[in-house]
Design a protein that fits this description.
Elements lengths: L1 H6 L4 E4 L6 H12 L9 E4 L1 E3 L10 H13 L6 E2 L8 H14 L5 E4 L21 E4 L2 H7 L13 E4 L2 H4 L4 E6 L5 H9 L17 E5 L10 H9 L8
Parallel strand pairs: 1-2, 1-5, 2-4, 5-8, 8-9
Antiparallel strand pairs: 3-7, 6-7
């Protein structure tokens, strides 16, 4: 991200919530604090948002990203783009966000996490690989998992979200998917080595011309070609970057 901003100071950075990307945001903030990166012209784009939570709710993803990304980087909401989760016409809000991303020149780099079932954003298994930004119904397991952010009360967890679709995500110029822990090993293997199939939404990254998977040893433990991937990474030309 810092290298991209060095080349393109007004880059549009797509960010994700969750614990996995937090070290990335902290490292970028440290570079900014040390004067090694300039984010003053950067723009931040949201991946997904709960439907029905007001923007000021502490667990709206807008609030979460303000705390975890914008404030540490010294950016204000004027640098932020996201869908309107409180819109009366949710479908219109989804379409408006797709148009806004295109009008902004498109996302330059999109950070992604991955679910244990291979979902990216809130594109659950069997989501269309051509899908656009749209409303999705959360699975009961996802609501149970997210209840920890709502004082353990699942009744407070919204049933619906707005998410960039897989087709929307694939329009970013560079996709960087982060995965840590053994619990993500099956999903990473399916994403990288499995067939491109809606049952594993992240497998659509195989169709992208510039996708990077960053996985720790535990998350990479079920890759059949792990040794090959280590070898090619160790021998990449410096000019190629990631």
């Amino acid at each position: 991200m810092a290298q991209l901003l060095g080349r393109k100071p007004a880059a549009l950075l797509g960010v994700a919530t969750g614990s996995t990307p937090l070290p990335v945001y902290r490292a970028l903030a440290a570079q900014v604090a040390a004067g090694r990166a300039d984010v003053s012209r950067a723009r931040i784009a949201q991946l997904d948002e709960y439907v029905g939570l007001p923007p000021e709710h502490p667990e709206s993803y807008r609030s979460v990203l303000a705390r975890e990304v914008l404030e540490p980087l010294g950016l204000g909401l004027e640098a932020f783009m996201g869908p309107d989760g409180t819109a009366t016409d949710v479908q219109a809000a989804c379409e408006a966000y797709d148009r806004a991303l295109a009008a902004a020149g498109g996302v330059d780099l999109q950070l992604l996490g991955i679910g244990t079932d291979g979902h990216i954003g809130f594109n659950e298994p069997c989501s269309s690989l051509a899908s656009r930004t749209r409303i999705k119904t959360l699975t009961e397991q996802t609501r149970i998992d997210n209840a920890r952010f709502f004082d353990g009360d699942i009744s407070q967890v919204p049933h619906h979200v707005i998410t960039q679709g897989i087709g929307t995500i694939l329009e970013a110029r560079h996709l960087v998917l982060l995965a840590t822990g053994e619990g993500k090993a099956d999903a990473v293997a399916a994403t990288v080595e499995g067939p491109v199939a809606a049952i594993c939404p992240a497998s659509a990254l195989q169709l992208h011309p510039h996708a990077t998977i960053v996985a720790d040893e535990a998350a990479a433990s079920k890759l059949k070609l792990a040794d090959y991937f280590r070898h090619t990474y160790a021998n990449k030309p410096e000019w190629q970057g990631i």
